[in-house]
């Protein structure tokens, strides 16, 4: 069975004929993060092959290599995938012979004919890296972390709420998802001559705390223009307007202010952190309001105080909106530029690539 398209096969073949450093594997690449990590590493002359099982629901124009190989989901915590296909297994082993690092993204482990990837003799001298990025790890950090600590020598977490949840994690480090500023053209201009335009179009309503944001917007209906989401949805499937990433980044251009996330918990687990859409909105020229409950952890790792307008609950959101409404447009513009310069300095592809290399070499 041909499980990878011909163009991707040719790419892999060409890569294996030269230097190849890292094999990256996952089922789902949420937010296209692993793909961007791969591009960052390649900026630093690391040659990577990134293979995943599923195309992203948001239709990112560039993604990892997608395989249609038949597979079975064995476990959700962590994500464990069993593959029986001999040709696919042979391909993976051919790649493994060339690389030094095997990167297990999104708390995902591959089994080959029910044998974990790290149990094969060919893997003994490989360095395993794991990325924990969201719900899978947040729900069961002890269970997931303890399994990966048996074979992964480096642990990367993508947001501060996931730090320090399992003391067995080896060389744990916070590295946020990067933004490719070549993809975005910021528009700092104001969209209406009389009122500020606020927006909120989340990837998932429940995760981003849309109900609180929408309720708060109603309190200011005479003072500003709100053209964002009007009700909270329960799943990606019902949020059809958000299923195309290109459509989403065009929406940012309509806003002066973007309210990203106000949500301290997910399924009773601590959350309250900003994500990709915060950075995307800033890259598009918006001023961003969002939450950051674990901001001290961010400050520790990144050695800066982010110039975000922080609101961790409804009252703080009301305060930040009132503060912005009281500011002159010149001062709002200054704050937009501050956020954009912060993004460039700490969360661009270039800066992330430097962090990733230091992380790998430790």
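Q: What amino acid sequence fits the structure above?
A:
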């Amino acid at each position: 069975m041909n499980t990878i398209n011909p163009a991707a096969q040719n790419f892999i073949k060409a890569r294996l004929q030269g230097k190849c450093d890292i094999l990256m594997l996952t089922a789902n690449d949420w937010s296209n993060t692993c793909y961007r990590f791969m591009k960052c590493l390649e900026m630093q002359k690391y040659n990577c092959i990134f293979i995943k099982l599923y195309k992203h629901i948001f239709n990112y124009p560039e993604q990892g290599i997608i395989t249609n190989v038949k597979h079975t989901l064995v476990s959700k915590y962590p994500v464990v995938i069993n593959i029986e296909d001999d040709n696919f297994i042979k391909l993976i082993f051919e790649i493994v012979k060339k690389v030094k690092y095997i990167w297990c993204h999104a708390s995902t482990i591959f089994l080959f004919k029910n044998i974990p990837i790290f149990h094969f003799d060919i893997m003994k001298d490989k360095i395993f890296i794991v990325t924990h990025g969201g719900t899978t790890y947040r729900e069961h950090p002890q269970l997931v972390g303890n399994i990966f600590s048996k074979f992964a020598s480096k642990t990367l977490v993508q947001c501060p709420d996931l730090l320090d949840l399992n003391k067995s994690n080896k060389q744990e480090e916070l590295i946020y998802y990067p933004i490719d500023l070549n993809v975005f053209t910021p528009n700092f201009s104001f969209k209406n001559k009389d009122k500020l335009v606020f927006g909120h179009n989340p990837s998932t309503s429940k995760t981003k705390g849309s109900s609180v944001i929408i309720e708060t917007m109603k309190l200011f209906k005479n003072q500003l223009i709100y053209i964002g989401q009007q009700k909270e949805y329960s799943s990606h499937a019902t949020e059809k307007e958000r299923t195309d990433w290109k459509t989403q980044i065009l929406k940012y251009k309509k806003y002066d202010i973007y309210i990203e996330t106000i949500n301290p918990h997910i399924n009773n687990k601590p959350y309250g952190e900003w994500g990709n859409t915060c950075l995307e909105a800033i890259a598009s020229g918006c001023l961003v309001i969002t939450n950051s409950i674990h901001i001290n952890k961010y400050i520790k790792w990144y050695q800066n105080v982010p110039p975000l307008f922080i609101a961790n609950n409804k009252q703080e959101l009301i305060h930040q909106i009132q503060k912005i409404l009281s500011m002159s447009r010149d001062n709002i513009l200054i704050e937009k530029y501050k956020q954009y310069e912060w993004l460039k300095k700490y969360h661009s592809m270039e800066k992330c690539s430097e962090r990733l290399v230091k992380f790998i070499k430790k």
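Q: And what stands out in the fold?
A: The mean pLDDT is 94.
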